[in-house]
Amino acid sequence: MMILQTLISGILLGGIYALISMGLNMILGVVRIINFAHGEFLMIAMYLSYIFYAWGGMDPYVSAIFIVIILFVLGLITQKGLIEPILDKPASTKIFATLGLSIVLQNLALMIFDANYLSVTTPYQSSVVNLLGIAISVPRLVSFGVVIAIVILLYLFLQKTMVGRAIRAVSMQRQAAYLVGVNVKRIYLLAFGIGTALVGLAGSMLMPIYSVYPTLGASFVLIAFVVVVLGGMGNMFGAFYGGLMIGVIESLAGVIFSPGLKEVIYFIIFILVLLIKPTGIFSKGKGSEAVGL
Amino acid sequence: MLKIEQINLSYGEIQVLWDMSLQIPEGQIVALLGANSAGKSSTINAISGIEKISSGRITFQGKDISKMAPHEIVELGVIQVPEGRKLFNFMTIEENLLLGAYSKHARKDIKKNIRRVYDMFPILEERKDQLAGDMSGGQQQMCAIGRGLMSNPKLLIIDELSLGLAPILVQELLRTLTTIKDEGITIMLVEQNVKQSLAISNYAYVLENGRVAIQGDAAQLTEDPHLKKAYLGM
Ligand SMILES: Nc1ncnc2c1ncn2[C@@H]1O[C@H](COP(=O)(O)OP(=O)(O)OP(=O)(O)O)[C@@H](O)[C@H]1O
Ligand SMILES: [Mg+2]
Predict the structure, then answer these.
(1) Residue A144 needs a FRET pair 20 to 30 A away by CA distance; which of A31, A125, B31, B180 works?
(2) Where is coiled-coil annotated (chain A) (predicted)?
(3) Chain A residues with CB inside 8 Å of B91's CB?
(4) What is the ipTM of this complex?
């Protein structure tokens, strides 16, 4: 029973990891940028969620709508202002640009909010539902439901709409995308926006169960990198399964070994996957063109 | 219809096109021939706006397109079927064709055009739900041409159609191009395969080291002594 309980809570947590990682992977697969500031966008979303709660008395699940929109716009600004001008520059320039952005955002948060841990108190915070004798935390269950809904919507968008197909086309075969008339720059913009909107939603879903602090992004972006490598670079739905898997592994490891060891375990998985199947365990094959690191 | 005037193109320090000029009249098949690395693909990538020329002019129906973005050029009806097909390998045949109709002016004709493509290449309809990457080379080339036709081309530029295909299949595809021309689409055929290309073309240019070395009516060029020696092995 204990194991089942752990398994379920791992999957629920994994849903949020999946959301973060899918955002990172969208940007990686389409724009070919490793966004080292992705975790800081999560941090921003959580601070925004805190502000909406502390100043406006707004529940995190409600403010999520605004936060997703704000983060989408932040993504557009980042792509337009920071990434677009350096697209033709060498990989090192791109790495330093997003790494620099991440440091700036962390320090900004430190200046504004200090290093304190901030959290919200909600009436449902510690409520649980009992399913066949297994206690499941309500906020985790709600978050997971939202994640599943969004993943399905995203899937339909990418598979069934012309713009969704264009996004996949750019990640699969950029030159041909140009030749069928896709405005590739605009697709980059959209992909970056969607990527940060996804991490924005993850932040909102995380706020009722977690505290926010300026360096929070660093630990989550590490998880996202592991998930992306696990699921296959540029493979959106690989990242979804990878996220769930990492959630489960983390929960089990916390019970079997000790919670303090979880980062060691991520790294072991990370290295094993890179050694054994560097295209990711969920990828169909070579996948998209090589990601220019 | 298309006019290239004195264009120069470089990749970094390396210049690959030198004062290149050519013309493609409406309703014809014009071949652009040449050996490996002669600059054929560079020429058509300049037309498609993927590579930017450093000087000269490219006009389509009187309009200067040399500074336009690739998607704007597609919108005008200048469509390239690239070397190596460059299909969206993890999408189905049908999705590849649908993406061919991405541009605004092509979307309204999706139904009509997909019917036309399937009638032209029935095998594509049979396999429409299979991944493009799993098809044979010939079927992939059909899919690539079909994707080009979905864009409502006025000028269809086909790069290395014959690459890696059996001669008999090449013959068949070239015959299809004649049909496409007869429907009113102008064709620019970019090829290393000189003999078969000349057979269906009206006019031809031969590129050598980024310059036009020979040009003339296709029928005449078949008799050209230099061409015979260098490209036809006679
Ligand atoms: N993106 C690029 N960057 C640098 N050099 C390039 C690039 N593309 C082509 N070249 C060089 O430009 C020259 C002309 O190449 P191009 O592809 O236009 O020739 P081609 O006639 O199409 O040859 P092929 O028959 O092999 O396709 C070659 O020397 C090639 O190495
Ligand atoms: Mg070529």
Answers:
(1) A31
(2) none
(3) 165, 168-169, 172
(4) 0.94
Atom of ligand 1 nearest to the CA of B34: 21
- Of A165, A177, A284, nearest to B95 by CB-CB distance is A165
Residues in chain B: 234
Q: Report the alpha-carbon distance of residue A230 to residue B34 in Å, rounded.
A: 46
Grouped pLDDT means (10 residues each) for chain A, 293 residues: 85 94 95 95 98 95 97 98 94 94 96 94 88 87 94 95 95 95 97 98 95 94 90 86 91 81 81 81 51 33
Nearest CA in chain B to A180: B100
* Residues contacting B224, CB < 8 A, separation 6+: B214, B216
Six-digit token string for B17? 């096109």
Distance CA B81, CA A117 (A): 57
Q: By C-alpha distance, which of A158, A191, A165 is closest to A26? A: A191
The Cα-based distances of B114 to A120, B109, B135, B146 in angstroms read 55, 8, 19, 8
pTM as predicted: 0.92
pLDDT for B3-55, tens place per residue? Answer: 999 999 999 999 999 999 999 999 999 999 999 999 999 999 999 999 999 99
Give the CATH class of A2-291: mainly alpha
The reply to whether residue A179 touches residue B102, judged by beta carbons under 8 angstroms, is: no
Query: Which sequence spans correspond to the domains of chain B?
Result: 1-77+155-161+193-234
A26 Cα to the center of ligand 1, angstroms: 31
Give CATH for domain B1-77+155-161+193-234. Answer: 3.40.50.300
Domain boundaries, chain A: 2-291
